[in-house]
Task: structure prediction
Amino acid sequence: MKKIMSDSFKTILCSLAIISTQACADDKADDKADVKTSGDKAEYYAHGEEIHQDHCLKCHTDQVYTRSDRFVTSINALGQQVERCKNGNNVPWFDEDTDAVVHFLNTKYYKF
Result:
């Protein structure tokens, strides 16, 4: 019985170690994905600004972002609004394009 418990205990410990190692690796990968150099941020901002000018300003001016009664009050709401506009106008953006527009709008106007 002692040998079975010992083997079971080892199996559990090994399983926890593997899970923990994977979770740590995933966290580190997420951290690396979130870290952008200032050059990357500038390019990301410029990309968002460019596609915003090409698509969003066809329907409205930037006054919708600066008016006192604006609808967007959080970063999540901003992302949802950009998605609604993109989908409602059949804009052919990838997720990265949408994220770049959200980044641009948040950096320039919203500052969430």
Helices lie at 2-34, 38-55, 63-66, 75-88, 95-110.
